[in-house]
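Holo prediction. Input below; ligand is D-malate.
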Amino acid sequence: MLRACADEGVPVVPQGGNTGLVGGGVPAGVAGAVVLSTRRLTGLDPVLADGTVVAGAGATLAAVQEHARAAGWQLGMDWAARDSATVGGAIATNAGGLRVLRWGPARAQLVGAEVALASGELLSRVDGPLKDSTGYDLSGLLCGSEGTLGVLTRLRLKLVPPLPAGRAVALVGVPGIAAALGVLAAVRRAVPDLAAAEIVGDSGLALLDLPAPLPDRWAAYVLVEVVGSVEELAEALTGADGVGDAVLAADPPDRARLWRYREEVSPAVTAAGVPIKLDVSVPAARLAEVWDAVPGLAGVGRTILYGHLAESNLHVNLLDVPDVEEEAVADRVLRFVAGAGGSISAEHGIGRAKTPWLHLTRSPAELAVMRAIKDTLDPTGILNPGVLLT
Ligand code: MLT
Ligand code: ZN
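Structure of the complex:
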């Protein structure tokens, strides 16, 4: 199909589960584009003795998770859209999620990829030994390429040993971002095995159709999960400055109930309107400054902040911003983040939505190399035009 499209000069927009948040998998503004869905590439090979598995690019995260679990392993990636998001999309965007602090982003799970090039040729690095130092990592190059260099068809993924069942979760109300960081630091010191650390600002929690988790409202809520007992976690929180109040859980259904206060924020924002979605990360030392500055920088509308605390990855969602102000508002926030030494996209990719700002955090030399790679692999520019590089 790619060869036919290349011959005819037809643009191709590869699409996985269509859960992306920057428009990388949609043909907006690309006249005559073909959307190439990978959703039927759902094959799952048996888990190998070396703890890797080859999955079709269109297999959902949930399907690979279940497949890994059945073989006594775990997929090192997870996020709320697990039932729709595909592993191909995850690798294509170098997605992140809820377990990055433990196992790293999608890139860290990738052993090798099979990819269909614009020419119609298939490159395959999904078989063979785990160790391989024979030149350029072509699979790695595809990670984060967002469908601009080729179409991922199969992935060999590294699985991880399952998280121990004995875990505890706390949802901690805190008076501000400094206290949130204090809670994270204290839990890290006291419980060696941290499994997750997330944050939701009060305006995000208020959008949820769930009972208030604590009797009082707090400026922000930190969700921490540890491998250990609820008693250990409670003791760690007792030693932390800034804990306003907390609710803890050890049983899986109770833990899942607390996780809903984090996982349901994103769909709740979408249900409340069409947000400007910014996905930024900053060096840890600058997180408090950025968290506090963002509502003022936005200036208009409602600011909803949540994200992945351990990686200083903040999801800035802005609702009710008038259309004419959208670009200027995004520009103010992204420039501030870049000035704080951050990234304008931590885990969602650049897609179509963030291309005007890529130059803020990638140098002219880097952009020139990216462009040269793109021109080599996709000389006629049929692959996902307008995404990542314009
Ligand atoms: C999340 O962490 O909830 C996801 O990245 C989705 C979002 O940013 O809205
Ligand atoms: Zn996220």
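The first helix runs from residue 2 to 8. That is the main takeaway for now.
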